[in-house]
Amino acid sequence: MPFLLSPIEAGPSLPRILVINPNATITFTEGMQRSLSPSPDIALDFYNPSYPAAPYSIEGVYDSVTSAAGCLEELKPQLGRWSGFVVACFSNHPLTEALRELTSSPVTSILSAPLLLASNLGSRVGILTTSPRWVPLLTHDIHALHLSPLCAAGVVSSGLSVLDLEHLPRERVMQTLTKMAKDELEVSRQADVIVLGCGGMVGLDREIKAVCREGMVVIDPVVAGVEVCGSLVRMRLQTGKLGIYAQS
Amino acid sequence: MPFLLSPIEAGPSLPRILVINPNATITFTEGMQRSLSPSPDIALDFYNPSYPAAPYSIEGVYDSVTSAAGCLEELKPQLGRWSGFVVACFSNHPLTEALRELTSSPVTSILSAPLLLASNLGSRVGILTTSPRWVPLLTHDIHALHLSPLCAAGVVSSGLSVLDLEHLPRERVMQTLTKMAKDELEVSRQADVIVLGCGGMVGLDREIKAVCREGMVVIDPVVAGVEVCGSLVRMRLQTGKLGIYAQS
Amino acid sequence: MPFLLSPIEAGPSLPRILVINPNATITFTEGMQRSLSPSPDIALDFYNPSYPAAPYSIEGVYDSVTSAAGCLEELKPQLGRWSGFVVACFSNHPLTEALRELTSSPVTSILSAPLLLASNLGSRVGILTTSPRWVPLLTHDIHALHLSPLCAAGVVSSGLSVLDLEHLPRERVMQTLTKMAKDELEVSRQADVIVLGCGGMVGLDREIKAVCREGMVVIDPVVAGVEVCGSLVRMRLQTGKLGIYAQS
Amino acid sequence: MPFLLSPIEAGPSLPRILVINPNATITFTEGMQRSLSPSPDIALDFYNPSYPAAPYSIEGVYDSVTSAAGCLEELKPQLGRWSGFVVACFSNHPLTEALRELTSSPVTSILSAPLLLASNLGSRVGILTTSPRWVPLLTHDIHALHLSPLCAAGVVSSGLSVLDLEHLPRERVMQTLTKMAKDELEVSRQADVIVLGCGGMVGLDREIKAVCREGMVVIDPVVAGVEVCGSLVRMRLQTGKLGIYAQS
Amino acid sequence: MPFLLSPIEAGPSLPRILVINPNATITFTEGMQRSLSPSPDIALDFYNPSYPAAPYSIEGVYDSVTSAAGCLEELKPQLGRWSGFVVACFSNHPLTEALRELTSSPVTSILSAPLLLASNLGSRVGILTTSPRWVPLLTHDIHALHLSPLCAAGVVSSGLSVLDLEHLPRERVMQTLTKMAKDELEVSRQADVIVLGCGGMVGLDREIKAVCREGMVVIDPVVAGVEVCGSLVRMRLQTGKLGIYAQS
Amino acid sequence: MPFLLSPIEAGPSLPRILVINPNATITFTEGMQRSLSPSPDIALDFYNPSYPAAPYSIEGVYDSVTSAAGCLEELKPQLGRWSGFVVACFSNHPLTEALRELTSSPVTSILSAPLLLASNLGSRVGILTTSPRWVPLLTHDIHALHLSPLCAAGVVSSGLSVLDLEHLPRERVMQTLTKMAKDELEVSRQADVIVLGCGGMVGLDREIKAVCREGMVVIDPVVAGVEVCGSLVRMRLQTGKLGIYAQS
Fold first, then answer.
1. Can you tell me the ipTM of this complex?
2. Name one Pfam family in it (chains A, B, C, D, E, F) (predicted).
């Protein structure tokens, strides 16, 4: 069952943003729902596609294509219901660009939004991601988005797969993540801002910050994606339709 | 008299952001105050330095240095009063980096914030600025901030000086700005997003959008700066203190 | 019915390359088949997906996702039949990366292959593509592939849509294409190599070269994609599996 | 005696490519001849200049200039005999650009050709070269050719000089090369493709691949140079004469 | 008392350059004066601002702004006395750009001048600076000046603060600096040119060179700044006034 | 007869710089000699190779190779006579790098030296060169030297060949050059600094400056090359021998 209800059923006149977890793991979507604070002027809905229309986790381009196709099939007929969209996969997921073509409502990505915010807070931003393969994948994606210079400390793998975040004991997950944040990003790479590099890490920012030296910044990418989308919605900005996102 | 009151005196427990117009022209500050919508969860204060501690407009690096020194002398003793700061000069004004060193509260710039937001809305962002000299100055500043690839349509001068925005008849100002937006950015440079490139252009976005082809995006930089700062404040993110902004 | 007809039924021991036209327009696939010369040591098969599993032409990211998903559903079970693959859409089509993940046989793209070959022949390579929207799309894709410096004269739109190539009278198509090649690429942008920027332009290289000044180079992207794939097959090189294309 | 015969004396109507080893060490040329497989549709000739017109190995720019001048003096009068040229020195050897000026037949370089092919196979290509000095030299050359982003794992020195490849016992050579490929490129730098960085390493690719983890790609640069040149010849593409290679 | 006399009172007709130490530590200024050789055709004057108009050392952007404002207040009325200016702070100090706006006489920076000269002498230039915070600050500044590719070995901190150079025993200072030059720049980063990264390191180049391997180059930034300024003065070149340095 | 005497026979103890015009046109060398002012502390010698060891003008890479080989054959045995060298061809002439390998005395290029100096004077430097072919050649060379960002206004051809500078009536030469400087660089490209892009343009800077708007900067490349070399000689800096210029 792909849809989840919105936690904040504010008045019907509030603009609504749809947070899309593009994999089929509903517990990730629920984690996002729990971690996002209610906003007084924007309502949030949450969605994930069903299996096998989309995979349980996204580990590369093949998964991204399947996931995007699965989401689009379900969402395309009803896109008019939302004033904004957040694609909550930490990658240059093709759903982001596809949605920008299909609707005028603004669409943000949980990969680019935290990097954009981070550029206000430090000069050596680093990303803590899941399995080793995401290092070259994210390096490629960040370059494609012209954001490499905003990510000077690069991408570090925790060695955990996306589904490990869900299935391993939480203590072991946190031990692994905090060790990499501290040793690899803070100490070796001299990062001054850490972006959590997976939608499944939603809500872990404070615990990771706690192990770092005072003054480190840790950013939750899902919250960042929702905040940036909220700004665009509040400013009544829409996707530009005279260039790359023109509808054919 | 440098201080202006906040238009939204919400409850005393709300976090407050200080919007700094770093030149001494109070009518610009008032324009910002008028154009910013009240936010339900953040209060705004407005400030500009007094003349001759700071110049009436900022036309280069010498003016920036004077302006930054003037603002810092007045603001430094009381920085603890705000949870966030917006430096409302459309440049890489040194006050931005200086404030990031002096306080942990996040600081945004009305140059970088609209470019960061715009990257979600189009792929050929262009800037409409004031006098011709701001073209090389902004080109330099945008490069220094690693944002050149997010501003593919470049910087266009309207030929108007900063103070022309204030002193010329509004009709003539709008005629000039809309012509350049249309002819130079939309048509010649194929921009799909236009960022207004001067704090003094606050509130002019809708009129400029109206002359462009349906689907053009026009961004008010002051509103963008306040929105991005608001996001950082809501996320309780602070300036990183382990790298470039460490206090010595 | 998606097709697989090999024009060159050489001995069964020859390695086979599959040329994939990822849209559903069979006449484009037939054009590719007609334009490719038989090779003495490699056999070619041709494929396109059926409608509506894939669109008749690809005009953006949404179409790419649909097209990739459609092709993958049909091809995935039988990938072991080929020693190499050519993705014959002039874009950074996600099928290219997805196939590199799914198989070890080399995969080339008709966007990158002609640019790689062109870098041996000149220093101001330009692309002649179809509708205006492909200009920002291809500019983005070429950057994502790190090939922008190998395409110094940039991308020029002919104003024709992909399907215009098929449906308009050939004379009018050629008039439009040759005019843009000559006026915009050769003269205005000083290109010394022109890459035809659409799979549907297969076989048009000689006519376009004929209108340019002696010494211009015009490259057919489909032939280029097949040649580069053939080189990789002959060298028995396979896709690397220790990094970005590792199977999860 | 500078000329070697072609190993494949196919019919006189076949196009011929000249493989130029631009140093005077004939055993390198013979190694190239042995390692290149006969092609059914293109004949290969091999050449190296005589000493002291050219040095026995090329260790920098002075050697390159001498080598290029020596080759050009001998070859210039007879360039019309070949349909393509391969400059088989792993550097941005000036002979490559000079030949492109002097003839319309395509010219490839064994530095750029394997990097171009490798970009289809992985995203972290690394080079294994000879003496330490070639690290800054090749880093410079690869940048000059706009290929740095296609060589993300950089250049590694084996510590062997070019002539060590010839004079040291083969076992010791292979021990040194395989150790560096494994330890420095595969493990430390996370390369997923290794390009052998010296014409004298022709034919060593399979042995080096054998020590790496399954899935590593190793490219022989001489074979790559010949394959890319063969593609250009088959496509009847010629060097562009309207720009950088115009004859004065 | 901010002014120091010129050591070389050549004839009154000689052009004069003002060397500006923009912090208030007079012993640094005196060190510069001692280390600069008399030139037969250009006279040198030396200046530093007084405390508290400027800080005793510059450790970031806030200090730079204060320092620039302090210097400009004292110097602005008398800029016509000099034919050239050297801003002797190893950073992109805003005084440099401000002076270029205020006068036509050429202005050089001791950050950019040694990097420009070094590009003639090697390909892996590295900088040895003071406290760790200067690493991200200088990395930013060098990028802003478009000089990153001329500084391939990057910036290394010695761990000493600017004032440590003055207050610690000289032996300990030299021990620390030579160790970092040798271990970090020469060995780890393979630098072939070392630029001393602080105005307070004036005159230390020979001692640092002495510990490195024969063939290392060590550049004194203050001498470099004066030499480049001298060249501009001798060539009668002035700051361009048609672009970024136009006076408003 | 390749050698010319030095115009300034100062005391024998003065360091001497050799200015190398690497083509065989002696009148260019004489023009350089006439245009360079005597320096009180450095003596200048002038050299050009003889024909046919080197061509009368350099119009590409083949000419550069011939020219470099011709110069090196004559100069190599006597390099110890000079404390510095200026390669007076406005290109990335291979003689520059070859000399840096062969000697420790500093070597400057009249392509890079004026760009380095210009970076102190403006932010949109442009080059006025000879024939159209030099536009792609110089664009390539400037990139190879990492100097593209210091040449933002790019390269403009005057349409004159190198030898036209010598053979056409001076009035016509100046008319052509001043028109291009004014119309193309000052007006169209908004250059604020113009570098004369040919050794044969030595001494023409003032006339070209005279036609431009007050505040334009025009740089003579030969004078710039000699000034930068003089700085290196005075600072007793030598070519680094631990990296790219190590002697093998």
1. 0.95
2. Asp_Glu_race
